[in-house]
Write a structure and sequence with these properties.
The chain is mainly α and about 325 residues long. Helix content is about 55%, strand content about 5%. The chain is built from 13 helices and five strands. It has a three-stranded parallel β-sheet with strand order 1-2-3. It is globular and about 70 Å long. The protein binds tryptophanyl-5'AMP (TYM). The site of tryptophanyl-5'AMP has 27 residues, from strand 1, helix 1 and helix 7.
Amino acid sequence: MGRIFSGIQPTSNLTLGNYLGAIKNWVTMQSEHDSIFCVVDMHAITVPQEPEALRKATYEALATYIACGIDPKKSTLFVQSHVPQHAELAWYLNCATPMGWLNRMTQFKDKAGKNRDSVMTGLYTYPVLMAADILIYHATHVPVGEDQKQHVELCRDIAISFNQRFEREVFTVPQPIMPKQGARIKSLRDGTKKMSKSDPSDMSRINLTDDADTIAKKIRKATSDADVLPSEVKGLESRPEAENLVTIYAALAETTMDKVLGEFAGQGFGVFKPALANLAVEKLAPITKRTQELLSDKGEIEAVMRQGRDKLIPMANKTLDDVKQAMGFVTL
Ligand code: TYM
């Protein structure tokens, strides 16, 4: 039994991509692993946030984790800024991470685009804070969607080189874990783009706070094509929107794409979209409802946050002591 660690940024609503790419896997894995799930508010501020919106989104994210099936009795849930040791470790790791490694990060290139000189330094060093999140608890596995795989690989490189440099196993080298289906859910408007909280079009994503009518409308209006569904997955090649909708169906129904196509081969989107809308509403509406119920008692959510923080601070301090000892700091 290893230890898993993962997190999501509280930047507006969580999406179907977050659910299928990450949280759904967390729910399955929490029974077999010591599990720690974080709301990474310090990552969220790498781009400007409205203070009140950030606070609200932090409560919402934690409530959504629980509503999706993360059990605070089995797993440790907490807010990143409540354990400031992450930021301290990130500083030490900043001093042990070559800039060349960060220059390769595709997410920074995508997010900074042409504004490399005006985005904040935190956006650039963000993967180092993510490495600190994982390494401070000696996580063995990190369940994430495909877009975070490169960051987990960087974390591995940092851990390996740190251990080599200081000639001791200070850090556990973690492995990324991705779901077989749903590791990269695409935008409902453009099957070549990732479904993302930051897409300006709300119609491009399903938010875990959307009500049943909104979910159904977004699926009805999702970009598709005029062909019927093929009988084999190969037939979806070069049909990114169709492939995405079939992927979403299979992931929500916990089946394979082949089985979905077995059921819908020869049918057009006039039949498939309503079936997908029904399935999505059936799976997601209870999550939305439960999230709202949980949010009506902030005290309860704060109790979960406090419990997580109190459990994790001693663990984090232990790792920091080892790191400081290895690096040559005077510890009293
Ligand atoms: P974030 O907040 O962008 O996304 C959270 C999780 O959701 C997954 N995800 C998706 N999966 C499939 N399809 C999509 N369209 C999609 N969009 C998002 C992401 O891969 C991720 O697993 N840096 C991280 C948060 C983080 C973290 C960590 C993760 C901070 N520290 C330590 C793991 C371990 C991030 O910004 O994820």
